[in-house]
């Protein structure tokens, strides 16, 4: 049987707050088992180190983009921002969801081994049982873009996105 040892102070943490920070494989009698290291930083990931030069180059390239370009993907919508507008979009998005009484959100961050945040996922649900509103917004900080997908992604595009963009003046 695989040995999955947990290395962390996990007492008092609910399963929602526990996240995998690194996974390493160890061999024991021809059985490969993962050793899972837990931490409380809201991220689920394999260990890696973000390449700062590559990340900055991607953000530099994004400065020459239009303020906002929206394209349809196979399962959702992709939003590409100019770098400065992406920062404002993130700020206004946070403000929009924190003041909404009809929506609940769950935030997950993907970070590297140095705790640098590469991306975030915001899962949105409606608090009103008569109104359907379920979608996720994947924010890619290194490319100044976002991917919106889910059952009610059109609610984001038609209702929520215009409200957020109004604060940015795009």
Tell me about the biggest sheet? 6 strands, antiparallel
How many domains, as an integer?
A: 2
Helix content: 25-40%
Shape: globular
End-to-end separation in angstroms reads: 56 Å
The whole-angstrom Rg is 19 Å
Strand order of the largest sheet: 4-5-9-8-7-6
- Total strands: the figure is 9
Word description of this protein:
Helix 2 (83-99) packs across helix 3 (153-168). With 170 residues, the chain is of the alpha+beta class. The protein has 2 domains: 6-39, no CATH class; 52-168. A hairpin with a 4-residue loop joins strand 8 and strand 9 (145-149). The chain has helices at residues 52-62, 83-99, 153-168, and strands at residues 6-7, 19-28, 31-39, 68-72, 76-81, 103-111, 117-126, 134-140, 145-149. The termini are far apart.
Comma- or semicolon-separated keywords:
170 residues, alpha+beta, 2 domains, six-stranded antiparallel beta sheet, three-stranded mixed beta sheet, 3 helices, 9 strands, globular, disordered N terminus
Question: What's the arrangement of secondary structure elements?
Answer:
Layout: E1 6-7, E2 19-28, E3 31-39, H1 52-62, E4 68-72, E5 76-81, H2 83-99, E6 103-111, E7 117-126, E8 134-140, E9 145-149, H3 153-168
Parallel strand pairs: 1-3
Antiparallel strand pairs: 2-3, 4-5, 5-9, 6-7, 7-8, 8-9
């Amino acid at each position: 049987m695989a040995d999955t040892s947990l290395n962390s102070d996990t007492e008092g943490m609910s399963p929602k707050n526990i996240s995998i920070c690194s996974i390493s494989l160890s061999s024991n009698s021809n059985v490969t088992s993962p050793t899972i290291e837990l931490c409380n930083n809201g991220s689920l990931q394999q260990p890696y180190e973000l390449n700062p030069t590559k990340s900055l180059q991607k953000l530099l390239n994004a400065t020459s983009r239009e303020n906002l370009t929206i394209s349809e993907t196979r399962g959702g919508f992709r939003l590409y921002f100019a770098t400065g507008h992406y920062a404002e979009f993130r700020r206004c998005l946070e403000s929009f969801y924190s003041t909404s009484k009809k929506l609940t959100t769950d935030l997950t961050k993907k970070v590297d081994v140095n705790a640098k945040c590469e991306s975030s996922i915001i899962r949105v649900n409606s608090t009103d049982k008569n109104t359907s509103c379920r979608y996720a917004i994947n924010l890619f900080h290194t490319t100044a873009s976002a991917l919106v997908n889910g059952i009610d992604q059109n609610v984001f595009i038609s209702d929520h996105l215009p409200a957020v963009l109004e604060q940015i003046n795009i």
